[in-house]
Amino acid sequence: MREFMGTVWKMIVESNILNVVGALLIFLAGWVFSLLCKKILYSGLKKMQLNRRLSLCLPDDEPGLEQPIDAERLIAGIFFWFLFLMTILAALSSLNLSEAAAPIKTFMNNVMGYLPCLIAGALLLFLAWLTASALKYVALTALSALHLDEKVEEHIDTKGEECKLSFSIATLLYWLVYLCFAPAILSALKVEGITSSLQAMLNKIFTYLPNLVAAGAIAFFGLFCAGLLRKVAVKFVGGVNLDIFPTPRDGKPMFEQKNMANLAGIAVYAVVAIPVVVASLSALKIEALTNSVSTLFNKILVAAGNLFGALLLLFAAYIAGKFVSRLLAQLLESFGFNKLFVSLGFSRDDSPSHDGKTPASVVGQLSHFAIMIFAIIGALELMEFQQLAAMLRSFVPFAGRLVIATAVFLIGIYLANLAASAIRDKGFESALFSLGLRVTILFFAGAVALHTAEIGGPIVQTAFTLILGALAVAAALAFGLGGREIAAKKLQEWTENSGKNENEKK
Fold it and tell me: Positive or negative, the Cα torsion across 220, 222, 223, 229?
């Protein structure tokens, strides 16, 4: 019996049944161990809430929303298959199936050889996550303390939606950290194809980053100073009492104090902001953009300077004109200029009209108008509107001739009234003669005034000559035909008187 059992055991050993049983036991134990490790790892990742943490790291409109990929189950499954492949490799090795185990062994050797790279990449990724999370938290805290979203909502219409600029900036910084760690992570993973191009891109970005920082700093501080100067200008102009402008009849001022202050603030802000923008663009060192924008802004600044100078000239001329007009009106009124128009017959007394105007005040307003005309010509020349300036400049001599012609006509009116009053109240014939004399003087004064103003030219001279000749012929005919008897009597009287005078001399 003992020999029989020995023979049977020898047959079992020689037929590799024990190896098969051992391989099966290794396979079953490894499979159970792999499942157990998978379950333990999955439970641990579940307690760590890996899916939720990864969802916070990924870009999404709603932070905290779970991603469609179950990272916990995926990692546990990869670990299970890794252990299960090691179990299969051990089972095949126990069966002495070297050829069948060779591919799996080669794969496992490659995996184990690449495992340090994976660990290094994972550590770098973890470090990137820590850095990005810390930077994001600091950025959110700082921007929330500065109330950036509230300030943006004050100046920009968000159409009822909540402003998330702070969150967007923090998220941008978060992913920039990942982008900075990306070349190191790819190098640790020995991914050489994309690493060089990504590294070159980051090098260009970091090389250009100082220009961006300088441009941003110049723009920030420059616009901040422009805002401060704007507030100072608004408060300064708002505190100045601008009572030099006339008040219309409705009682409302021509320029409201608030509007003038806001206009001054905008002008100061623009004058400061334009050079700041040019300097900020120059700091970017983009030649094409900088040259074009600088040329544009230089033209704007030159035009703004010319416009400011023109407005300042008009403003000074307006103030000077008001002073000169009031002074001239007072001087003329003190010299009795208003009574001159009473003597000319334009008014019965020298009291002001229903709208408060007197001849002296009208002359003062005309002087103010003349000063403003010269100021407008100078302003147009400053703004390089040469054609408009030339047109107004050609109007000035005509206006001067028109003033002289008006003075000539007024002198003619005065002489006509003086001559008419000298022969007034002398009877019907004297009244008729005074009217004719007055009309003749006025006609002659009007012709001289038109000639002085150079209106009409030779036509006026010819018309005046013809009309004057016609009046002379008409007067001669009227006197000769209608006054023959009177003329005969007058001639007889003159003859008798002359005869008496001769007799007396003898």
Answer: positive
Rounded to whole angstroms, the Cα distance separating 216 from 174 reads 20
Distances (CA, A) of 176 to 55, 57, 78, 163, 365: 18, 13, 30, 22, 70
What angle separates helix 148-155 from helix 98-145, to the nearest 10 degrees? 60
Task: List own/partner pairs for 442-445 with CB under 8 A and 24 or more apart.
Answer: 442/412, 442/413, 442/416, 443/467, 443/468, 444/412, 445/408, 445/409, 445/411, 445/412, 445/413, 445/415, 445/416
3-state helix, strand, coil in the chain (%, to 5): 85, 0, 15
Contacts of 333 (CB under 8 A, 6+ apart): 358, 360
Quote the CA–CA distance of 467 and 450 in Å, as a whole number: 15
Task: Residue count of the chain, please give it.
Answer: 506
pLDDT, mean of residues 457-484: 64
Residue that is written with structure tokens 């969150």 in the block: 167
Domain regions of the chain by residue span:
1-96
pLDDT of 65: 45
Tokens of 4: 């029989």
Prediction pTM value? 0.48
Is residue 188 within 8 Å of residue 117, measured between CB atoms? yes
Q: What's the CA gap between 155 and 383, in Å, rounded? A: 34
Half-sphere exposure of 70 (CA within 13 A, CB side): 9
User: Per residue in 102-148, pLDDT tens?
Assistant: 777 777 777 777 778 888 888 888 898 889 889 988 988 888 888 77
Give whole-number Cα distances, 53 to 44, 63, 162, 388, in Å.
14, 10, 25, 73
